[in-house]
């Protein structure tokens, strides 16, 4: 039920095959941080989505070049680059969906929480602009630490009086696609048919893959522990391999596109669109918690229950909650203490 791949793959395949068979649609999407390692390939994937009419690329550097480059690809989305703080309102105004991969990525030895001091301020500024000129948009937060940046975004919107919990998402899709890849490898199954539900948060041990719920799978205790750890710390593999040049960008761009594509389908009225995302809910004591969510015309339509958990998963959930609560509190306090 948390499958993210087939429909979105279909969208890309459809886009690449032919645009003549696609219906004209009207989605307006902005990417904030569009010149970055994630932002550029994400913007390219969005350019290939025929359901997008306008694609606004905002960053503090390089967006005119990125936009000019992408604008030569023959797909309907009209791509416009907006560079610098003065243009953020123009970039976001009237957008249906705002995707945010702005901010600094990790270097070897850093946790996502280490990024807080820089990225918190960036996300706060983007939330303020969003509240002002795009108060009804859906916001998809990629900037880390997601466990804190989503509460920051919410708090700014609350202050502005525009917060709608159905429209704010922390993007945890990378955890899901990693889980699908690693589980299929381990089980020797078709990766295109493997769908793992990943709940919790988006940092280390707060990432909770529900391997006990993977249909038809059977894991040895060692494999279960190793796979869980690899899904939780898969980002570190990439950070280490990139050796100081950043964190996951290409897989994240793909994941970000998948989630955006799903949301766009749901906003258009498609039924039964389900994806895992970090959203406000009351499933646990944490204010935000990733869970399978049915998406609809107004954003979150339904947050699904977690289903039955193994003893190991239940224990991991209980251990994760204090971290999720503390990281959310840190975000809220950052906004409350800001001038
Ligand atoms: P990057 O450094 O390559 O790109 C970031 C972009 O943000 C740059 O182009 C930069 O100019 C821009 N930027 C900085 N301040 C800005 C502002 N005030 N307004 C608009 N744009 C601004 O970094 P990368 O690798 O693209 O990562 C971006 C963020 O995504 C990081 O915080 C990273 O930790 C996070 N990330 C999240 C993942 C997830 O699963 N949610 C996975 C991987 C990375």
UniProtKB/TrEMBL annotation:
Gene Ontology molecular function terms on file: L-malate dehydrogenase (NAD+) activity
Assigned keywords, A-Z: NAD, Oxidoreductase, Tricarboxylic acid cycle
Cited PROSITE patterns: MDH
A GO term from the CC aspect: cytoplasm
Family annotation (InterPro entries): L-lactate/malate_DH, Lactate/malate_DH_C, Lactate/malate_DH_N, Lactate_DH/Glyco_Ohase_4_C, Malate_DH_AS, Malate_DH_type1, NAD(P)-bd_dom_sf
Annotated EC: 1.1.1.37
Pfam (any one): Ldh_1_N
Active site: 202
Keyword Lipoprotein among UniProt keywords: no
Lactate/malate dehydrogenase N-terminal domain span: 28-170
Segments forming domain Lactate/malate dehydrogenase C-terminal: 172-335
Binding residues annotated for substrate, in chain numbering: 106, 112, 144, 178
Matching CDD domains: MDH_glyoxysomal_mitochondrial (cd01337)
Residues given in the record as NAD(+) binding sites: 33-39, 59, 119, 142-144, 252
The keyword NAD is assigned to this record: yes
Catalysed reactions, as listed in the record: (S)-malate + NAD(+) = oxaloacetate + NADH + H(+)
GO biological process: malate metabolic process; tricarboxylic acid cycle
Quaternary organization: Homodimer.
Similarity field: Belongs to the LDH/MDH superfamily. MDH type 1 family.
Name of the protein in question: Malate dehydrogenase
